[in-house]
Design brief:
Layout: H1 7-12, H2 18-32, E1 37-41, E2 44-49, E3 52-59, E4 64-67, H3 71-76, E5 85-86, E6 91-93, H4 101-115
Antiparallel strand pairs: 1-2, 2-3, 3-4, 4-6, 5-6
Length: 117
């Protein structure tokens, strides 16, 4: 696996439609949270607000993953996530997902509240 230097390097390494979908996810976050910082951690894009991790994304062979960095947030959103395959910490989405900006923003807002931000 390649070692990426920037979020852009990571995104550029992805084939279509993974690249476009993750770019749309990150663009949605930036639009809703202008104070968000996008960084690489564990060689994948992560979102920080106030120096704390609030969301992460990753690409796999057959799906993409979204992670709010909180089992509690995942549990709180269980009803809204019923149509997705989930684990305690992440949501698996199709590579060509029609980005649900409201869901992402609500999850980040919940994570920020959990962190006292």
């Amino acid at each position: 696996m390649a070692k990426f230097e920037t979020v852009e390097d990571y995104l550029s390494s992805l084939e279509s439609p993974k690249q476009e979908t993750l770019r749309a996810v990150l663009d949605s976050i930036k639009a809703n949270f202008p104070d968000a910082e996008f960084k690489l951690a564990w060689n994948v894009p992560q979102v920080q607000i106030g120096g704390k991790y609030v969301f992460g994304v990753n690409a796999f062979k057959n799906h993409l993953a979204l992670a709010p960095w909180s089992e509690a947030v995942m549990a709180d959103f269980a009803t809204r996530l019923a149509g997705y395959e989930t684990t305690k910490g992440l949501i698996r989405i199709p590579v060509d997902w029609d980005v649900d900006s409201e869901l992402i923003a609500d999850m980040i807002t919940a994570r920020k509240a959990e962190l006292g931000l």
